[in-house]
Specification:
Blueprint lengths: L24 H8 L5 H13 L11 E4 L4 H14 L3 E6 L8 H12 L3 E5 L3 H15 L6 H16 L3 E4 L3 H5 L26 H4 L16 H6 L3 E4 L9 H9 L10 H4 L12 H17 L1
Parallel strand pairs: 1-2, 1-4, 2-3, 4-5
Length: about 300
Protein backbone atom coordinates (compact mmCIF):
# COMPACT_ATOMS: atom_id res chain seq x y z
CA UNK A 1 0.00 0.00 0.00
CA UNK A 2 1.24 3.48 -0.91
CA UNK A 3 0.21 6.75 0.70
CA UNK A 4 0.06 10.20 -0.87
CA UNK A 5 3.07 12.12 0.38
CA UNK A 6 0.91 15.15 1.16
CA UNK A 7 -2.44 13.95 2.53
CA UNK A 8 -1.67 10.26 3.32
CA UNK A 9 -4.60 9.01 1.24
CA UNK A 10 -3.88 5.35 0.34
CA UNK A 11 -3.74 4.13 -3.24
CA UNK A 12 -6.43 1.52 -2.45
CA UNK A 13 -9.18 3.93 -3.49
CA UNK A 14 -10.84 2.33 -6.54
CA UNK A 15 -9.86 3.85 -9.91
CA UNK A 16 -7.20 6.14 -8.43
CA UNK A 17 -3.77 6.74 -9.94
CA UNK A 18 -0.90 8.43 -8.14
CA UNK A 19 1.65 10.58 -9.96
CA UNK A 20 5.22 9.36 -10.39
CA UNK A 21 6.08 11.64 -7.46
CA UNK A 22 3.64 9.80 -5.18
CA UNK A 23 0.88 12.43 -5.16
CA UNK A 24 -2.82 11.50 -5.24
CA UNK A 25 -5.22 13.09 -7.79
CA UNK A 26 -6.93 15.20 -5.12
CA UNK A 27 -3.67 16.84 -4.02
CA UNK A 28 -2.61 17.31 -7.65
CA UNK A 29 -5.90 19.11 -8.33
CA UNK A 30 -5.63 21.21 -5.15
CA UNK A 31 -2.18 22.37 -6.20
CA UNK A 32 -3.49 23.33 -9.65
CA UNK A 33 -6.31 25.46 -8.19
CA UNK A 34 -3.74 28.02 -7.01
CA UNK A 35 -3.46 29.17 -10.63
CA UNK A 36 -7.19 29.17 -11.50
CA UNK A 37 -9.02 32.32 -12.60
CA UNK A 38 -12.11 31.89 -10.39
CA UNK A 39 -13.91 34.87 -11.90
CA UNK A 40 -13.62 33.19 -15.28
CA UNK A 41 -15.09 30.00 -13.86
CA UNK A 42 -17.96 31.98 -12.33
CA UNK A 43 -18.71 33.41 -15.75
CA UNK A 44 -18.61 29.93 -17.25
CA UNK A 45 -21.19 28.87 -14.66
CA UNK A 46 -23.42 31.81 -15.55
CA UNK A 47 -23.19 30.92 -19.26
CA UNK A 48 -23.95 27.30 -18.47
CA UNK A 49 -27.08 28.20 -16.54
CA UNK A 50 -28.17 30.46 -19.41
CA UNK A 51 -27.88 27.49 -21.79
CA UNK A 52 -30.39 25.54 -19.66
CA UNK A 53 -33.35 27.93 -19.32
CA UNK A 54 -36.43 26.92 -17.43
CA UNK A 55 -39.06 25.43 -19.73
CA UNK A 56 -42.42 27.14 -20.14
CA UNK A 57 -44.70 26.22 -17.26
CA UNK A 58 -41.82 24.89 -15.19
CA UNK A 59 -41.12 26.22 -11.70
CA UNK A 60 -37.63 24.85 -10.97
CA UNK A 61 -34.41 25.55 -12.84
CA UNK A 62 -32.42 22.53 -11.72
CA UNK A 63 -32.21 19.68 -9.23
CA UNK A 64 -29.77 19.31 -6.34
CA UNK A 65 -29.32 16.02 -4.52
CA UNK A 66 -29.26 16.82 -0.81
CA UNK A 67 -28.89 15.19 2.57
CA UNK A 68 -29.32 18.39 4.53
CA UNK A 69 -25.59 18.37 5.28
CA UNK A 70 -22.86 20.96 4.78
CA UNK A 71 -22.30 20.50 1.02
CA UNK A 72 -25.91 20.35 -0.08
CA UNK A 73 -26.94 23.26 2.15
CA UNK A 74 -24.19 25.43 0.74
CA UNK A 75 -25.04 24.48 -2.86
CA UNK A 76 -28.72 25.31 -2.42
CA UNK A 77 -28.04 28.67 -0.81
CA UNK A 78 -25.32 29.62 -3.31
CA UNK A 79 -27.47 28.89 -6.36
CA UNK A 80 -30.53 30.64 -5.02
CA UNK A 81 -29.03 33.64 -3.23
CA UNK A 82 -26.02 34.30 -5.47
CA UNK A 83 -27.34 33.34 -8.90
CA UNK A 84 -31.11 33.64 -8.54
CA UNK A 85 -31.64 29.97 -9.43
CA UNK A 86 -34.66 28.10 -8.07
CA UNK A 87 -33.56 24.51 -7.40
CA UNK A 88 -35.71 21.50 -6.55
CA UNK A 89 -33.99 19.58 -3.76
CA UNK A 90 -34.09 15.77 -3.84
CA UNK A 91 -33.18 13.62 -0.87
CA UNK A 92 -33.02 9.87 -0.32
CA UNK A 93 -34.61 9.03 3.01
CA UNK A 94 -33.09 6.44 5.31
CA UNK A 95 -35.41 4.04 7.16
CA UNK A 96 -36.59 5.39 10.54
CA UNK A 97 -34.18 3.19 12.53
CA UNK A 98 -31.17 4.48 10.56
CA UNK A 99 -31.74 8.22 10.21
CA UNK A 100 -30.58 10.45 13.06
CA UNK A 101 -32.65 13.14 14.73
CA UNK A 102 -29.92 15.55 13.65
CA UNK A 103 -30.43 14.49 10.03
CA UNK A 104 -34.18 15.07 10.25
CA UNK A 105 -33.61 18.52 11.77
CA UNK A 106 -31.10 19.49 9.07
CA UNK A 107 -33.46 18.48 6.27
CA UNK A 108 -36.25 20.40 7.99
CA UNK A 109 -33.87 23.35 8.15
CA UNK A 110 -33.53 23.33 4.35
CA UNK A 111 -37.30 23.31 4.01
CA UNK A 112 -37.59 26.18 6.50
CA UNK A 113 -35.01 28.12 4.48
CA UNK A 114 -37.60 28.17 1.70
CA UNK A 115 -36.71 25.28 -0.60
CA UNK A 116 -39.00 22.70 -2.21
CA UNK A 117 -37.86 19.18 -1.28
CA UNK A 118 -38.84 15.83 -2.80
CA UNK A 119 -38.13 12.76 -0.67
CA UNK A 120 -37.41 9.34 -2.17
CA UNK A 121 -37.90 6.49 0.31
CA UNK A 122 -37.15 2.93 -0.89
CA UNK A 123 -39.01 0.07 0.82
CA UNK A 124 -37.37 -0.51 4.25
CA UNK A 125 -37.57 -4.31 4.03
CA UNK A 126 -35.65 -4.41 0.75
CA UNK A 127 -33.22 -1.81 2.09
CA UNK A 128 -32.45 -3.86 5.22
CA UNK A 129 -31.95 -7.13 3.36
CA UNK A 130 -29.61 -5.57 0.79
CA UNK A 131 -27.69 -3.75 3.49
CA UNK A 132 -27.12 -7.03 5.35
CA UNK A 133 -26.15 -8.91 2.19
CA UNK A 134 -23.79 -6.11 1.13
CA UNK A 135 -21.95 -6.52 4.41
CA UNK A 136 -21.86 -10.32 4.20
CA UNK A 137 -20.63 -10.43 0.62
CA UNK A 138 -18.44 -7.32 0.35
CA UNK A 139 -17.87 -6.12 3.94
CA UNK A 140 -19.68 -2.97 2.78
CA UNK A 141 -23.23 -2.46 3.97
CA UNK A 142 -23.49 0.66 1.79
CA UNK A 143 -22.97 -1.21 -1.47
CA UNK A 144 -26.69 -1.01 -2.29
CA UNK A 145 -27.75 2.11 -0.42
CA UNK A 146 -25.20 4.28 -2.24
CA UNK A 147 -26.64 3.05 -5.54
CA UNK A 148 -30.10 4.18 -4.43
CA UNK A 149 -28.65 7.49 -3.26
CA UNK A 150 -27.07 8.29 -6.63
CA UNK A 151 -29.97 6.89 -8.69
CA UNK A 152 -32.69 8.90 -6.95
CA UNK A 153 -31.57 12.26 -8.35
CA UNK A 154 -31.60 11.54 -12.12
CA UNK A 155 -34.69 9.37 -11.69
CA UNK A 156 -36.64 12.31 -10.26
CA UNK A 157 -35.10 14.70 -12.80
CA UNK A 158 -36.62 12.54 -15.54
CA UNK A 159 -40.01 12.37 -13.81
CA UNK A 160 -40.14 16.16 -13.33
CA UNK A 161 -38.73 16.99 -16.75
CA UNK A 162 -35.78 18.93 -15.30
CA UNK A 163 -32.67 18.65 -17.45
CA UNK A 164 -29.96 20.20 -15.24
CA UNK A 165 -28.60 18.41 -12.16
CA UNK A 166 -26.17 20.20 -9.87
CA UNK A 167 -23.76 17.96 -7.96
CA UNK A 168 -21.18 18.94 -5.35
CA UNK A 169 -17.59 17.87 -5.78
CA UNK A 170 -16.01 16.20 -8.78
CA UNK A 171 -15.09 12.72 -7.46
CA UNK A 172 -12.38 12.38 -10.10
CA UNK A 173 -10.55 15.65 -9.41
CA UNK A 174 -11.41 16.24 -5.78
CA UNK A 175 -11.46 12.64 -4.49
CA UNK A 176 -9.55 10.51 -6.97
CA UNK A 177 -12.03 8.19 -8.74
CA UNK A 178 -10.57 8.91 -12.17
CA UNK A 179 -13.18 6.97 -14.15
CA UNK A 180 -15.73 9.68 -13.36
CA UNK A 181 -13.87 12.38 -15.28
CA UNK A 182 -15.99 13.90 -18.05
CA UNK A 183 -15.37 16.14 -21.04
CA UNK A 184 -14.25 18.98 -18.77
CA UNK A 185 -13.89 19.78 -15.08
CA UNK A 186 -17.60 20.34 -14.47
CA UNK A 187 -19.13 17.62 -16.67
CA UNK A 188 -20.68 14.99 -14.40
CA UNK A 189 -22.28 12.67 -16.92
CA UNK A 190 -19.50 10.12 -16.37
CA UNK A 191 -20.52 9.77 -12.73
CA UNK A 192 -22.10 6.43 -13.70
CA UNK A 193 -18.62 4.92 -14.03
CA UNK A 194 -17.66 5.47 -10.40
CA UNK A 195 -16.83 2.34 -8.46
CA UNK A 196 -20.11 2.30 -6.51
CA UNK A 197 -22.43 2.57 -9.51
CA UNK A 198 -20.49 0.23 -11.79
CA UNK A 199 -20.99 -2.77 -9.50
CA UNK A 200 -24.36 -3.60 -11.08
CA UNK A 201 -27.53 -5.33 -9.87
CA UNK A 202 -26.62 -9.00 -10.36
CA UNK A 203 -25.80 -9.65 -6.72
CA UNK A 204 -29.08 -7.99 -5.67
CA UNK A 205 -31.09 -10.15 -8.03
CA UNK A 206 -29.43 -13.22 -6.51
CA UNK A 207 -30.85 -12.11 -3.16
CA UNK A 208 -34.29 -12.98 -4.55
CA UNK A 209 -35.55 -9.55 -5.59
CA UNK A 210 -37.16 -8.78 -8.94
CA UNK A 211 -35.99 -5.94 -11.18
CA UNK A 212 -39.18 -4.07 -10.33
CA UNK A 213 -38.43 -4.26 -6.62
CA UNK A 214 -34.95 -2.87 -7.31
CA UNK A 215 -36.18 0.15 -9.29
CA UNK A 216 -34.94 2.69 -6.69
CA UNK A 217 -31.42 1.27 -7.08
CA UNK A 218 -31.19 1.58 -10.87
CA UNK A 219 -29.16 4.50 -12.20
CA UNK A 220 -30.60 5.68 -15.56
CA UNK A 221 -28.57 4.50 -18.55
CA UNK A 222 -26.74 6.56 -21.16
CA UNK A 223 -29.71 6.25 -23.52
CA UNK A 224 -32.09 7.72 -20.93
CA UNK A 225 -29.71 10.60 -20.23
CA UNK A 226 -29.55 11.38 -23.94
CA UNK A 227 -33.29 10.97 -24.45
CA UNK A 228 -34.09 13.44 -21.67
CA UNK A 229 -31.06 15.70 -22.31
CA UNK A 230 -29.85 15.35 -18.72
CA UNK A 231 -26.66 17.14 -17.72
CA UNK A 232 -24.91 16.77 -14.37
CA UNK A 233 -22.71 19.71 -13.37
CA UNK A 234 -20.14 19.62 -10.57
CA UNK A 235 -20.76 22.89 -8.75
CA UNK A 236 -17.66 22.49 -6.58
CA UNK A 237 -15.47 22.99 -9.67
CA UNK A 238 -16.62 26.61 -9.85
CA UNK A 239 -15.98 27.55 -6.21
CA UNK A 240 -12.45 28.43 -5.15
CA UNK A 241 -13.28 28.08 -1.45
CA UNK A 242 -15.07 24.73 -1.75
CA UNK A 243 -13.87 22.58 1.16
CA UNK A 244 -15.16 20.51 4.06
CA UNK A 245 -14.50 23.26 6.61
CA UNK A 246 -15.68 26.20 4.49
CA UNK A 247 -18.88 24.49 3.44
CA UNK A 248 -19.62 23.66 7.07
CA UNK A 249 -18.98 27.23 8.20
CA UNK A 250 -21.30 28.65 5.53
CA UNK A 251 -24.02 26.14 6.37
CA UNK A 252 -23.76 26.46 10.16
CA UNK A 253 -24.56 30.17 9.87
CA UNK A 254 -27.81 29.08 8.20
CA UNK A 255 -28.90 26.59 10.84
CA UNK A 256 -26.91 23.40 10.14
CA UNK A 257 -26.53 21.15 13.18
CA UNK A 258 -23.19 19.31 13.44
CA UNK A 259 -21.93 16.39 15.52
CA UNK A 260 -21.06 16.64 19.19
CA UNK A 261 -20.01 13.01 19.76
CA UNK A 262 -16.27 13.61 19.39
CA UNK A 263 -13.50 12.57 17.05
CA UNK A 264 -12.71 9.42 19.05
CA UNK A 265 -16.05 7.91 18.02
CA UNK A 266 -16.19 8.96 14.37
CA UNK A 267 -12.70 9.88 13.21
CA UNK A 268 -14.15 13.25 12.13
CA UNK A 269 -11.97 16.10 13.39
CA UNK A 270 -14.67 18.72 12.84
CA UNK A 271 -17.89 16.76 13.38
CA UNK A 272 -19.38 17.85 10.05
CA UNK A 273 -19.62 14.64 7.98
CA UNK A 274 -22.32 11.95 7.78
CA UNK A 275 -24.70 14.05 9.85
CA UNK A 276 -27.87 12.24 8.81
CA UNK A 277 -26.95 8.74 10.06
CA UNK A 278 -24.31 6.97 12.17
CA UNK A 279 -23.51 3.88 10.06
CA UNK A 280 -21.19 5.76 7.69
CA UNK A 281 -18.34 6.40 10.16
CA UNK A 282 -18.45 2.74 11.21
CA UNK A 283 -18.43 1.59 7.58
CA UNK A 284 -15.45 3.80 6.77
CA UNK A 285 -13.48 2.46 9.72
CA UNK A 286 -14.28 -1.13 8.71
CA UNK A 287 -13.26 -0.53 5.09
CA UNK A 288 -10.04 1.14 6.16
CA UNK A 289 -9.10 -1.75 8.44
CA UNK A 290 -10.08 -4.37 5.85
CA UNK A 291 -7.99 -2.74 3.13
CA UNK A 292 -5.04 -2.60 5.49
CA UNK A 293 -5.27 -6.32 6.25
CA UNK A 294 -5.61 -7.25 2.56
CA UNK A 295 -2.65 -5.11 1.50
CA UNK A 296 -0.48 -6.26 4.38
Amino acid sequence: MKYCKFCLQPDTRPNTFFSVDGVCPACTYFSATKHVDWQERFEILQDLLAQHPRRKGQYHDCIIGVSGGKDSTRQALFLRDKLGVNPLLVTLSYPPEQVTERGVENLSNLINLGFDVVVSAPAPQTWRTLKQEGFRQFTNSFRSTEMALFASVPQIAIKYGIKLIMWGENPGLQLGDMKTLGRNGYDGNSLRYMNTLSSGLDWMLKCGFTKSELTPYVYPGVEEFEKHNLQIVYLGWFLGDWSLVNNAEYSCTSGLQIRTDGVEKTGDLYGVTALDEDFTPINQLIKGGFKYEVQR
